Please model this.
Amino acid sequence: MKYTSFEKETLIEALELLFDKRGLNYLHQDDNGTYYPQNPDAPDEETPWDEPYDAKTANTISSLIEKLSE
Model:
């Protein structure tokens, strides 16, 4: 899809707001900037609001922002 620069900026801002609203900044990041759960015994990434699910969500948001920033 093609977006205007204003549309890209708006989408990026919306994604950043979602990241903040969900409070995903508690997650740890590796050296490549990938978010991961700190608790290895946490349930799988399909259970909403658990660390693996949040890490998957944070990585998806980060990936979308990166793609929109290109």
Q: What stands out?
A: The mean pLDDT is 91. Strands lie at 28-29, 35-36. The chain has one domain: 5-69. Helices lie at 5-21, 51-69.
